[in-house]
Amino acid sequence: MGKKMIEGRDKNIARLKELTELLNRASKAYYAEDKEIISNFEYDKLYDELMALEEETGIILSASPTRNVGYEAVDELPKERHERPMLSLEKTKDREELKEWLGGQKALLSWKLDGLTVVLTYSGGKMTKAVTRGNGEVGEVVTNNAKVFQNIPVTVSFPGELVLRGEAVITYSDFEKINERIEDTDARYKNPRNLCSGSVRQLNNEVTAERNVKFFAFSLVKAEGVDFHNSREEQCLFLQSLGFETVEYRMVDEGNVVETVEVFEGKIETYDVPSDGLVLIYDDIAYGQSLGTTAKFPRDSIAFKWADEVRETKLREIEWSPSRTGLINPVAIFEPVELEGTTVSRASVHNISILKNLKLGIGDRITVYKANMIIPQIAENLTGSDSVEIPDACPVCGGKTQIRQVNDVQSLYCTNENCEAKKIKSFTLFVNRDAMNIEGLSEATLEKFIAKGYIHEFADIFHLDRFKEEIIEMEGFGEKSYQNLINSIEAARKTTLPKLIFSLGIANIGLANAKMICRHYHNNLEEMLEADVEDLSAIDGVGEVIATGFYEYFRKEENKKRWGHLLKEVELEKEEIEEGSQTLSGLSFVVTGSLNHYASRNDLKEVIEKKGGKVTGSVTSKTVCLINNDNTSSSSKNKKAKELQIPILTEEEFIEQYLAAAGREAYPAASGEAAG
After folding, report:
1. pLDDT of the residue at 5
2. Mean predicted confidence (pLDDT) in 32-52
3. What is the distance in angstroms between the CA of the first residue and the CA of the last residue of the chain?
4. CATH number of this structure's domain 311-414, picked from the four choices 2.170.190.11, 3.30.360.10, 3.90.550.10, 2.40.50.140
């Protein structure tokens, strides 16, 4: 063997080892640690390179991701070996290749759902076992969790042994609702797939039940004694007849497979279930089985991944966007291009590691695409000048920055504890519906405004009109959205003192506490601010911790100065407190479930608080009663109330016992009409 051949072989082997290590590390980060060290585009590209090298050299390393499927299950749940290995699917991005693959056969074309694969077993009509895919050979037993999936039949009419596979998913709409309940944006879930994976693998299935996990069957493994006439579609119809929701599919052949792919493509943007492509499987079961499998793939099915629409453009700048945690994210700003029907001009680069890997420089020619046809990403850097300078000062406060490495990922942070960007959570609370109720200022928008220096303190929000031209030019804004924002800000100038105090974000002071303090001092701001901790602690429902937080906040000079600025921007509406109206003073209630007479729980809460009562989120020994129209519910609040022997009252019972003396105008039950 010549010297050049040996050098070439050694180089290939070194590259094989490098790619194997990198791809395994990236997979572990993505699937097990919910983080991304390389983009999906880059992963696919490197995976294809590895497969080509393995074919060229005939060498496949034992740890190669082309042989191993997934990662070992975590240890918290029992493990179990699957009766039949669950192989991954060979993939293509070429629509014409699907026609060739069909070879005159009919097949089912369906969504490739992006969740967690689960194998269900039924015996005697009852679910007896649910096991996750795991590494394809060994999965985790999640039977109790599967029983609380939103749409799964726990019992079926089929008496024999039934085994099927499907995908557990959380829809985009449910994902957004779950994230909306988490105030801390850094604590929010990154995507539905990660949330679903964690939800299915919970040790407490009450958590699983709260996450609205759904299950879509895609494959029947066993059903004793049933003749399916050698048809996959017959199997799907059988599962549907038992009450299972199956993955949406269409029957196709060579003549219509390409146009059917286009039908699915047209539904992507509005399809609520996460998907990362399509699956094509032969309808003829015997034919598919006769083809056997490779070491990694079954030959009766193939996955189709959307060919990313890639556009070349020019990198204009890197915008450094600070967040509440001090993390400063690089964002690529490039010349606008059309992608998947929309104009895009920016894409997150995620972290310093990816920035360095892409070797970005201002003026570089780059290619961009939309991951899963949704999220703009940089695919490649065609120039590779590697000249972007990482800032040593925070763009918001000018404080010193620092590159920190956590595991394999390098990220940039601001080290200044008093950086305005780190106060993003307080600004988010300030504009919250229960505080100043300013629409159009999402946390992401606030971060941008703070990063650009438009906002330094609460009062600055009322002067955003100074930056009209700049805001209108920002992505996501325009003349109409800008005007809507300004109108909302102007409407917020009229507010109440309790809402204004709550909006400050003083530790431990919620809206109810702010109302109690204001009512005690009859909205006399001067008396309130002169009160000491002892005076404030004496207010029923306040206590020393809340009193101390309130007192200390207004003793800090910086806070007093900013409070003065804020008062100049608002007009406080006085809440008249009628003599003898505090009939619920000192009483604590909990409200849960749907209501008939009030439009929302907040409406009922407002009525209780106006009469001096308090509404808390959990049942304790101090709770007077739990208001719930469903006394038979097995909710944790009902269980706790029964355990503590606290009355559970319907709305009508609560109104009769606690509000009737206040007069019919205090509640909407008088007319007998349900609100909303």
Report:
1. 60
2. 77
3. 83
4. 2.40.50.140
- Of the candidates 179, 131, 171, the one whose C-alpha atom is nearest the C-alpha of residue 151 is 171
Is 616 exposed, middle or buried, given 0-12, 13-18 or 19+ CB atoms closer than 10 A? middle
SS3 percent helix, strand, coil of the chain, rounded to 5, is 40, 20, 40
- At 609 the pLDDT is 79
Query: Is the confidence at residue 256, as pLDDT, over 70?
Result: yes
Task: Please tell me which residue in 112, 423, 614, 637 is annotated as part of the active site.
Answer: 112
CA 543, 549, 555, 561 torsion-angle sign: negative
Radius of gyration of the chain (CA): 30
Give the burial string for 105-137 (b: 16+ CB within 10 Å, else e).
bbbbbbbbbbbbbbbbbbeeeebeebbbbbbbe
Query: What tokens does 53 get?
Result: 């090298």
Q: Domain extents for the chain?
A: 3-57, 79-304, 311-414, 420-492, 496-573, 588-671
- What is the fold of 420-492? DNA polymerase; domain 1 (1.10.150)
**Could you tell me if 256 and 93 are in contact, meaning their C-beta atoms sit under 8 angstroms apart?**
no
Q: What is the pLDDT of residues 400-446, one digit of tens each?
A: 999 998 767 889 999 987 787 777 878 888 998 888 999 989 888 88
DSSP bridge partners of 319 = 331
Distance, C-alpha 189 to centroid of its chain: 4
SS3 343: strand
Q: What is the average pLDDT score of the chain?
A: 84
Q: With the C-alpha atoms ordered 181, 183, 188, 191, is the resulting torsion angle positive or negative?
A: positive
CATH number of 79-304: 3.30.470.30
Band of residue 31 on the pLDDT scale cut at 50, 70, 90: low
Q: The whole model's pTM is what?
A: 0.51
pLDDT(674) > 50: no
**Is domain 496-573 annotated with CATH 1.10.12.10?**
no
pLDDT at 185 over 60: no
Under CATH, what is the fold of the domain 3-57?
A: Helix Hairpins (1.10.287)
Q: Is residue 358 within 8 Å of 349, Cβ to Cβ?
A: yes
- 202 and 145 Cβ atoms separated by less than 8 Å: yes
Q: What is the CATH number of domain 588-671?
A: 3.40.50.10190
pLDDT at 662 over 60: no
User: CA–CA separation, 31 vs 267, rounded Å?
Assistant: 27
Same fold: 420-492 with 496-573 = yes
Q: Structure tokens of 477?
A: 């804004």
Average pLDDT of span 458-474: 92
Element (H, E) at 121: strand 116-123
Concerning whether 79 is annotated as a catalytic residue, the answer is no
- Please, are residues 54 and 64 in contact by the beta-carbon 8 Å criterion? yes
Sign of CA dihedral 460, 463, 465, 469: negative
Judge whether 310 and 379 are in contact, CB under 8 Å. yes
- For range 113-137, the mean pLDDT: 89
Helices and strands, number each (H, E), in the chain: 24, 24
Q: Say what percent of the chain tops pLDDT 70.
A: 89
Q: For residue 455, what are its two tokens?
A: 């906002």
Q: What are 58's two structure tokens?
A: 């005939």
- Three-state DSSP at 585 gives coil
Could you tell me which of 134, 132, 107 has the C-alpha nearest to residue 121?
Answer: 132
Alpha-carbon span 572 to 567, nearest angstrom: 9
Per-residue pLDDT at 310: 85
What integer pLDDT is reported at residue 451 of this predicted model? 80
- Each residue of 287-316: pLDDT tens digit? 998 988 776 678 889 989 876 778 999 999
